[in-house]
Design goal:
By secondary structure, this protein is an alpha/beta fold. The protein has three domains: 193 residues, 3-Layer(aba) Sandwich (Rossmann fold), CATH 3.40.50.720; 89 residues, N-(1-d-carboxylethyl)-l-norvaline Dehydrogenase, domain 2; 131 residues, NAD(P)-binding Rossmann-like Domain (Rossmann fold). The protein is built from 18 helices and 14 strands. The protein has a six-stranded parallel sheet with strand order 3-2-1-4-5-6, with helices on both faces. Helix 1 crosses helix 3 and helix 11 runs antiparallel to helix 12. The site of uridine-5'-diphosphate-xylopyranose has 19 residues, from helix 9. Keywords: NAD, Oxidoreductase. It is an enzyme of class 1 (oxidoreductase).
């Protein structure tokens, strides 16, 4: 099939590449000429495991092309994916200007039937708006379909190629059949393509993300309470998660959720609710708890360092909002670093992928270490913000010898409490007892 993807951000790039992988001819459109040139030369603009291999293979096979020309894209595709940004407006709602501007262009330019697919996370009612904007100018038939994307950064390729489900919001039989044909290679294992109306599809994405953010936040509150009463959240987590109604996943407490989706989508749903005269009380609480959770380790670090972190060297392992990505959007590490810098601490940081992005934001205010152990050399404390695999089994003896004070503040509960005790560390984690 001939596919056009407008917008080569995270979702657009993965969508375009993975659709080319099943034999479709894909043209990706982006207004950023520099980025398009790089992609034409085979450079993947983001770090995402396995994407580079698929990218190269499909470019070489001439199935994946890039252009800055929307006209060229619209000429090419029978299915036009909109994978455009929907940034957070000042009031927390999703800004639809990119989506609606491109829709207007589509209305003016298409000459034959197209299925326009909303892939971006958009508020309920957006498909209807897109439909109207295109219809105002269109001279041919078209359908608008809502097809939210559920992929996770770090697992995006796998999530796209082997989705647990595909949600399609469509009220046109013709468009539904086209979407089913497009996605059938991805659900050969029997996972469903769930067809529903456009509004329900749009809400499904927000509801799923808000639910997961709530699940994590609930565990963060249980963890905080565990600390008060001397219970161990790891044990509670396993005890709860083995109930299949609850499930084992997304129950890991820590220093809060971040990323490009959860924070933005939870706020957008809250705002959309209030616009429709509905007050999502649970989402107010989720936002508030998550904000506080990001710096939950700060008072502990301060207390340990004699209530004065100024001039102290603190090493930080893990800066990305989660492992296997260089994405730092809304990463809890940002909040910890800002707070510690404000208090005069010297920070020596290391992350396997996110250092260039952090450098752009923090400039000379941090020391950028070349390795995890370079960061901890002479440190008064180690703070862990992201659970990259390489941090899971460090050389504890080396750490102990290198550090001025062997103290670890672990925002991701990486280590076993008994090990920390026998290794002789002062160890603070989330929802578990403190080891002195
Ligand atoms: C999320 C959704 O999972 C995905 O379906 C949607 O399409 C986009 O948003 P992503 O933001 O890539 O994906 O990351 P995810 O793995 O879901 O993690 C989100 C945040 O929650 C991270 O900050 C992570 O550290 C945190 N998290 C996750 C926890 O704190 N505890 C957990 O148990 C799971």
């Amino acid at each position: 099939m001939k596919i056009t993807v407008v917008g080569t951000g995270y979702v657009g790039l993965v969508t375009g590449t993975c659709l080319a992988e099943t034999g479709n001819e894909v043209v990706c459109v982006d207004i950023d000429a520099e980025k398009v040139l790089k992609m034409q030369n085979g450079v993947v603009p983001i770090y995402e495991p396995h994407l580079d291999v698929l990218f190269e293979r499909n470019i070489n096979a001439d199935r994946l092309k890039f252009t800055t020309s929307l006209d060229e894209g619209l000429e090419h595709g029978e299915i036009i994916f909109l994978a455009l940004p929907t940034p957070e407006d000042e009031d927390g709602s999703a800004d639809l200007s990119y989506v609606l501007n491109v829709s207007e262009e589509i209305g003016k330019k298409i000459k034959t039937y197209k299925v326009i697919v909303d892939k971006s996370t958009v508020p309920v009612g957006t498909a209807e708006k897109v439909q109207k904007v295109i219809a105002a100018n269109a001279v041919c038939d078209f359908d608008v379909v809502s097809n939210p994307e559920f992929l996770r950064e770090g697992f995006a390729v796998d999530d796209f190629l082997k989705p647990e489900r595909i949600v399609v919001g469509s009220s046109s039989e013709k468009a539904t059949k086209i979407m089913q044909k497009l996605y059938s290679p991805f659900v050969r294992s029997g996972n469903p393509i769930i067809i529903m109306d456009e509004k329900s599809a749009e809400l499904t994405k927000y509801a799923a993300n808000a639910f997961l953010a709530t699940k994590i936040t609930f565990m963060n509150e249980i963890a905080n309470y565990c600390e008060k009463v001397g219970a161990d959240v790891d044990k509670v987590r396993v005890g709860m998660g083995t109930d299949s109604r609850i499930g084992k996943r997304f129950l890991f407490p820590g220093i809060g959720y971040g990323g490009s989706c959860f924070p933005k989508d939870v706020k957008a749903l809250q705002k959309a609710g209030s616009d429709s005269d509905y007050d999502f009380k649970i989402l107010d609480a989720v936002i508030e708890v998550n904000d506080t959770q990001k710096t939950t380790l700060l008072p502990k670090i301060e207390a340990y360092l004699d209530n004065d972190v100024s001039g102290k060297k603190i090493a930080i392992w893990g800066l990305a909002f989660k492992p296997e990505t260089d994405d730092i959007r809304e990463a809890p590490s940002l909040y910890m670093m800002k707070a510690l810098l404000d208090k005069g601490a010297h920070l020596s940081v290391f992350d396997p992928e996110a250092m260039p992005n952090i450098k752009k934001m923090f400039g000379d205010s941090l020391n950028y270490a070349n390795s995890m152990y370079e960061a901890t050399e002479g440190a008064d404390s180690l703070l862990i913000c992201t659970e990259w695999s390489i941090f899971r089994t460090p050389n504890f003896q080396k750490l102990r010898e290198q550090m001025i004070r062997p103290a670890i503040f672990d925002g991701r509960n990486l280590y076993n409490l008994d090990d920390m005790e026998s290794e002789g560390f002062t160890y603070f984690s989330v929802g578990r007892k403190q080891i002195n």
